UniProtKB/TrEMBL annotation:
InterPro entries: Split_barrel_FMN-bd, TR_PAI2-type
One Pfam family here: FMN_bind_2
Protein name: FMN-binding negative transcriptional regulator
């Protein structure tokens, strides 16, 4: 990512929160054949320390294209993002920008056993189905689910380092940030409730100061 130290997000708990809320991630590998990118749902493994561990699964034969487990991969977690119009700035300020919350994670994938992979698939399904009024589960027909699971490869990445940014108009005056939040929360052409919520949260954290 562009070197912007004033937007750095260094708290591990904030990166974990970003992963929890934005599970559709991009996996990038620098392979012997060149760069390869794929997109898969990802779950954070909950820990009480400052380690970050994620699990996912690749559909075959994607694991071969990525040479999965042979080298480090980059995982991109994209949170809320959107266009910020200079029409929301003070008079005379006319340069637009794009606000975003993004994290880059690095680590070497550990290939899971078939049993571990099936457990991850159970977790993924249960995690997303729990919001449904009548959740479905792989328990409905585990024999069939296990046959389908053979077309996937499970992985765990223990993140060795990360680079995260929360660019939320911190460089603008208080009144301009308030206007931006109001516009994002409204019904205009660039309204974005999720990005407005991130900015409000940033404002609350700024107001509360260091813990």
């Amino acid at each position: 990512m562009r070197h912007t130290p004033h937007y750095l997000m260094t708290e591990v708990d904030e990166v974990k929160r970003l992963i929890r809320r934005n599970p559709w991630t991009t996996y990038v590998s620098h392979t012997s054949a060149g760069l390869v990118a794929s997109h898969y749902a990802t779950l954070l493994e909950e820990t009480d320390d400052d380690t970050i561990s994620i699990v996912s699964h690749f559909g075959r034969p994607d694991e071969l294209a990525h040479e999965l487990g042979q080298h480090e991969v980059l995982v991109i977690v994209q949170g809320p993002h959107g266009y910020i119009s200079p029409g929301w700035y003070a008079e005379g300020d006319f340069i637009p920008t794009w606000n975003h919350v993004t994290a880059h994670l690095w680590g070497t994938p550990e290939i899971l056993s078939a049993q571990e992979n099936f457990q991850v698939l159970h977790r993924l399904t249960d995690h997303f189905e729990k919001r449904m009024p009548e959740p479905r589960s792989l328990h409905i027909d585990e024999a069939y689910a296990e046959r389908v699971a053979k077309g996937t490869v499970g992985l765990r990445i223990r993140v060795t380092r990360f680079d995260a940014r929360a660019k939320l108009s911190q460089n603008k005056p208080d009144e301009v940030r308030a206007t931006i939040i109001e516009a994002l929360a409204g019904d205009g052409p660039y309204a974005d409730a999720a990005l407005a919520a991130e900015m409000r949260r940033s404002e609350d954290r700024r107001a509360s100061g260091p813990a």
